[in-house]
Amino acid sequence: MKRLSAVLFLSLIFILSITARGSEEIPGSETVSVHLVVPNGATLVPIALLDGKSISEGFDVELEIIKSSDLLGAKLISGEADFAVIPSNLAAIMANKGTGLRIAGPVIWGLSYIVTSENLKGWDDLRGKSVPMIGRGLTPDITFRHLLEVNGLNPDEDLEIVYVSAATELVPTFLTGRSTVSMMPEPMVTTVLSKKPDTRILVDIQEEWRKLYGSSYPQASLVVSGDFADKYPDFTDEFIQAFSASVDAAKADPEAAGAAVSALVPELNAGIIADAIPRMNLDFMAAADARGALEDYFEVLKAFNPATIGGKMPVDDFYLP
């Protein structure tokens, strides 16, 4: 009887010690599957060197690569994604839909450039030019139009913005000479630089934004389900630390990151990805530190079209502390 009482006492102490840690559930004998969702493309680079099975005992991170924007939205709305790397404005949209999504921090600070095969010098030389790009009304379009206006150009009168239906059209259109100026993202920029020797970067969109706001624009961010973060706060912190380390590793060893991305998606060329990484502006910054940059970005998008951030600025809970 005394032995039984001792066992019960120790069990009670154990339970109380768990309760004292907060609301986090401690994994038992079963491993917790953590669903990481990442769109196909440049957003794979930050997670390329992430070992999801060794972050924390009892948790197993499973990667799902999404190739459809509709499917990505569905995963976020349904709560299937525990973590995701997505456009920052999409995170705001999802939060404003009441999904409880929280932003852990930006990781891609813009990857768009204006390239040319002509002898152009700067913004004013874009007058009268046709500039193919993707994303009518989306964030690349808004950032481009904003910078055109800041530099004294009317986007609808002083040049012709030609919106192509798919990003895959930009490279062949430029390489065949059908366009001599184009706005495109990495890794497409690296592709045309490698295949057309007379190509050069005319405008670094990120640098131009930095001149205005003191930092580049937080184009893509790591987000986490609010329910998951509340249930597993310790693991959420551990995952964010591992994610940040993966970003640093990709910057330090682009070749390894390029090979890892190509292993995930064979049609993405390892060498091109590796060469593109220095121009992808990778840098993970915690949401608390990046809030000012995020809000500057959201304000520009909101002024153009409130729907691009879900109609209103995100509330305080959106930013993971």
Structural features, described:
The chain is of the alpha/beta class. Strand 6 (130-133), helix 4 (139-150) and strand 7 form a beta-alpha-beta unit. It has helices at residues 2-20, 69-78, 88-96, 139-150, 170-175, 188-195, 205-213, 226-231, 233-252, 254-264, 270-276, 287-304, and strands at residues 32-39, 59-66, 83-87, 101-108, 112-116, 130-133, 160-163, 181-185, 200-204, 220-225. 42% of the residues are buried. It contains twelve helices and ten strands. It folds into two domains: 28-109 and 217-316, 3-Layer(aba) Sandwich (D-Maltodextrin-Binding Protein, domain 2), CATH 3.40.190; 112-213, D-Maltodextrin-Binding Protein, domain 2. 42% of the residues lie in helices and 18% in strands. Helix 9 (233-252) packs across helix 10 and helix 10 (254-264) packs across helix 11 (270-276). The strands form three sheets. Strands 2-1-3-10-4 form a five-stranded mixed sheet, with helices on both faces. Strands 8-5-9 form a three-stranded antiparallel sheet.
